[in-house]
Design a protein that fits this description.
Length: 242
């Protein structure tokens, strides 16, 4: 009985494929040549490639992005960054929030800076809104001006073909690397943060005119970021990076 069923199944599939080929032949017989050519191209380009040229599983797996697990508790700083973003953001999906958290930690490790500092900057700059636009045109999580983003992308070989920085991962990469550039120049953390907010030229002018940055200028932005950073350090500073 089972042999008969299997045989019937094979014959059924054979009849189905035969009917499909006949239907295609009839359709092509009564179809204008240009359309018929398109149908043949579709058959060869799609059906043939799927049936007779299967993808290499290794190549296919290489194109897939890893699925990041949502942390329940902060076991390391990457978990802490992810939880802070997930709890506060109104625009990022869970998947994008986890990608951003990983990027923040990756950039911190790459640049030799605490990822909690970048998180504090994002908290003050955009409050985790990756679509934020300031009145003067700064974009994204780390509020980059388009010309600054373009300059940083060119200097650090990051891809900026879309001509904007609303991609949250790219925005963090650009913002982190631009800040590291400023820190190398201004050395002091409060001065580098002020330059990130006001611009390096304005910050240099203030330093040249007054010898050091006025307290009111520092408190306007750098003070807020540092307060948030110290809060995060007190909460998560004892955790390993990963």
């Amino acid at each position: 009985m089972r042999r008969c069923e299997r045989a019937h199944g094979r014959h059924g599939r054979g009849w189905s494929l035969g009917l499909l080929v006949c239907a295609l032949a009839l359709a092509m017989a009564f179809t204008p040549p240009a359309v018929a050519d398109s149908m043949v191209g579709l058959w060869r380009g799609r059906f043939h490639s799927v049936m007779w040229q299967p993808r290499d599983p290794v190549d296919l797996l290489g194109e897939l992005e890893p699925v990041l697990a949502r942390p329940v508790v902060a076991l390391n700083r990457e978990d802490a960054v992810a939880l802070e973003i997930l709890q506060a953001t109104r625009t990022l999906s869970d998947a994008d929030a986890l990608r951003v958290a990983r990027t923040i930690v990756d950039e911190g490790e790459r640049l030799g800076l605490d990822p909690l500092l970048f998180l504090a900057m994002i908290h003050v700059e955009s409050f985790y809104d990756h679509l934020a636009i300031s009145p003067v045109g700064a974009e994204g999580l780390m509020q980059l001006m388009p010309d600054t983003a373009e300059w940083t992308a060119a200097k650090t070989d990051l891809n900026w073909t879309e001509r904007h920085s609303f991609d949250p991962v790219l925005n963090v990469q650009l913002g982190a690397r631009y800040f590291r550039h400023l820190q190398r120049e201004f050395r002091r953390l409060d001065a580098a943060l002020t330059a990130y907010n006001r611009g390096p030229e304005a910050t240099r002018f203030l330093q040249d005119e007054t010898g050091e940055l006025p307290e009111a200028i520092v408190e306007f932005y750098a003070g807020k970021v540092l307060d948030r950073y110290h809060h995060l350090r007190a909460q998560y500073g004892q955790l390993a990076l990963r």
